Amino acid sequence: MVSLNQDKKKRSRLRKGAKTAPYITFGTKSVACLALFVVVYFICMMFFQPMLRDEEKATRFKSAKDHLVGKVRKESHAWKEEIQMARGNGRDKVEKQLMDKAWKQFLKGKQQKGKPNHANITNGKPDVLPPKARKQNVNDDKPTTGFMVLGMHRSGTSMLSGLLVDGFGYQPGKPLIGPAFDNEKGFFELIPAVLQNDAFMSNEQVNWAANVERYDAERVLEQTKQGNVNTAKLDKAIAVLNDPNNIPWLQKDPRMCITMRTWLPYLNSKPAIIFTYRHPLEVAMSIHKRDMGFTIIRGLKLWILYNKAAVQNSADLCRVLSNNNAVLDDPLAETMRISNELTTKCGVPVPPQQITAEIINSFIDPSLQHNKKQLEEKREGMKVLETHGGDCEVREFEGQFSEKTHPQLREKELKMYLMAMKIYCDFQSGDAYKSDYEWPKF
Fold this sequence. Notes:
- This protein is an alpha/beta fold.
- The protein is built from 15 helices and 8 strands.
- The protein has a domain of 234 residues.
């Protein structure tokens, strides 16, 4: 019986084995194929795994980078908007509000008087020829009934213009930009002329602080004739400058250094020029202090470009030369000399009054003269780097960048400073006014 039971169990195991054998029993070929598959699988994994990891890393890096770039752009945009609010691309928000306010007051005054503030009127419109009909020859035999004050921003042009207006009675016209935090005595800038300069420069993709070297006065003039430039304020500005009741007139806007040749054909006068300049480092640091993010390097470059344009654009006009130091050292003597030369040298009509010490004392802030003296004393202690014209010393300065932390930027800053100071010394010697003077190229 035992033997019989064992045989049954044995047969039962054989039947079960017969059912599963096809699935668990492998021949030589099957084993070889499986082995080959395993080998290929591991080789592929060894080859592609680093790539998969790198791709995963790249994906994570790209995601992090996109997040960071987006954040930086967002913050940069917010910063840019904040700067534009403070600076307004060269004409800050406060200044624009002042222009709007002055313009409204001017129009209100005209309505109250019942007549416009200029004489040449035909059928209720200014007698100003359309652009195509205006003469473009600057060398016409025109009378000199007024003058332009040319000089780089932050160079004392507002102070000088204010002394000439309040002290001698030269006519800047109306409406004018009012006082602001950075010019408490006023800018003495004619609003329609300021706005038209904006339009002229915008047509060239230029603003007061960018690409000024690209401005082409003749191209803008041609574009204006073809009607491709916004001239909404041009006739209003010209009506003031060509007004015979507005003589002797004064026109001041630092950007006239760049745009002046575009204006000349529209004037009934061949204007005289007052050109004034200030120490380049003082100008650059003043702009840097006023406008966040404005480097001293950029300020120095602009100083060069503006002064170069002013000198070259006024080369065929009668010029009276001055500088900010001369005005601050003796404002009474310097302004009297300027006014006298405007009349005797350039033919500008005699002003209606003469300046007095009382007007000067009420206009010039004593702190300006004090700060100037402090700066000169500070420079005296600095090392002399170069000397030009025998006695014009270029001294070392404390810039925006340190040689230890930003060596390349410091080198660029120093190079631009030396370039500007060479011109500054040449202004003092008179060499920079010569027709063959070699200006730096950028």
